[in-house]
Amino acid sequence: MLIKTGRDGYIHPTSSEITPQAVYRQRREMLRLLATGAAGAALASWAGREALAQSVQRPGKLAALAGQKSSVAGAVTMEKVTEYKDASSYNNYYEFGTDKGDPAHNAHTLKTTPWTVEVDGLVKKPGKYALDDLLKLGAQEERIYRLRCVEGWSMVIPWVGYSLAQLLEKVEPQPGAKFVEFHTLADPKTMPFVGSRVLDWPYVEGLRMDEALHPLTLLAFGMYGEVLPNQNGAPVRLVVPWKYGFKSAKSLVRVRFTDKEPKTAWNKAAANEYGFYSNVNPNVDHPRWSQATERRIGEDGLFAKKRKTLMFNGYEAQVGQLYAGMDLKKNY
Ligand SMILES: Nc1nc2c(c(=O)[nH]1)N[C@H]1C(S)=C(S)[C@@H](COP(=O)(O)O)O[C@H]1N2
Ligand SMILES: [Mo]
Question: Could you tell me the CATH number of the domain that includes residue 113?
């Protein structure tokens, strides 16, 4: 019997950290999985995803997005960057389906031109921005951020964009504005799952004003030096690296300033599971699973070691003070 686990097709303890004892444990685990029949399913789903990853095309016809390496503290990690094919084929974008491969399969129908983002609510200079004007509003930078999904996996992605603060300062929030609400596109004609009952559409997210103004909060137009592929939230999205991935709303169409904590899509769907803050926190479990560890996509052979999840996803030095004195168990 041929057992395939790794990308190169054989059982391989890739990491030099693996001790002979760990290898032994892996073999034993493999035997256990084989005995229960679980190995076949795990390997089949692994192989399916790998095939999809290999078939994903870069949106090569689209322009490259230049970006200098960011000088914002914390905006660049030295960790190994996730491969483009993984970052663009393993996605959550529920408007295009709930399986990780659905967005890469289905998001080609998303129409990203023309595109406008509306700015409204408690703001002195409301208005509609054409994408080109929005692009030019700030200096494009490359930021290499960890993205930690609430489901327990993570990636390291080089985004291109500028701090959301640059847009917010330009439009001048009114003194009464305490939160920023983000609406994303909900077009049933091009998004097959808008209308499904998993979430209340449009997908809405929100940040407190100081979170939205934090220099790490990125308005992203690209990744890997190129325009965002549709499945990653083209043409413009949010990336909030110290919060669970679902706060990073894709395909933004509206930025609204408000005095009330926004009602977000995931919070409305399951308030006890997805709080407004949703800061990455290894000490606060999701009601159905632990958040203490994570699986790094690309390191996830059947036996890859999990990584320890870091407080605020590793950005504690930069953002910890935003939450000084707050009970983070209550404000999950
Ligand atoms: N509009 C919209 N934005 C979204 C989602 C979504 O379903 N719809 N999923 C979120 C979740 S759960 C995650 S983990 C990230 C994934 O971003 P990526 O596919 O670029 O890695 O997008 C977030 N933004
Ligand atoms: Mo997520």
Answer: 3.90.420.10
CA distance 54 to 47: 11
Match 């004003």 to its residue by tokens: 209
| Separation of alpha carbons 313 and 325, rounded Å | 19
Q: CA-CA distance, 101 to 89, in Å (whole number)?
A: 6
Q: Is 133 a member of any domain?
A: yes
pLDDT of residue 57: 76
- pTM recorded for the entire structure: 0.88
Whether 92 is in the pocket of ligand 1, judged by its Cβ within 6 Å, is yes
Task: Give the chain's domain count.
Answer: 1
Q: Is 196 annotated as a binding residue?
A: no
Answer whether 313 contacts ligand 1 (Cβ < 6 A). Answer: no
Cα 138 vs. chain centroid, distance in angstroms? 22
Cα separation, 117 vs 127, in Å, equals: 8
Q: Is residue 22 part of a domain?
A: no
Question: Phi/psi of residue 158, each to 5°?
Answer: -85, 100
Do the annotations mark residue 107 as ligand-binding?
no
237 assigned to a ligand binding site: yes
pLDDT bracket for residue 211 (50, 70, 90):
very high
Q: In a mutational test of the pocket of ligand 1, which residue from 198, 207, 246 has the highest number of ligand atoms less than 8 Å from its CB? A: 246
Q: Which of 32-36, 67-71, 299-303 has the lowest mean pLDDT?
A: 32-36
Note whether residue 33 is domain-resident: no
Nearest of 59, 53, 58, 15 to residue 307 by alpha carbon: 15
Tokens of 233: 């939230």
Pocket test of ligand 1: the residue of 93, 254, 267, 278 to mutate, having most ligand atoms within 8 Å of its CB, is 93
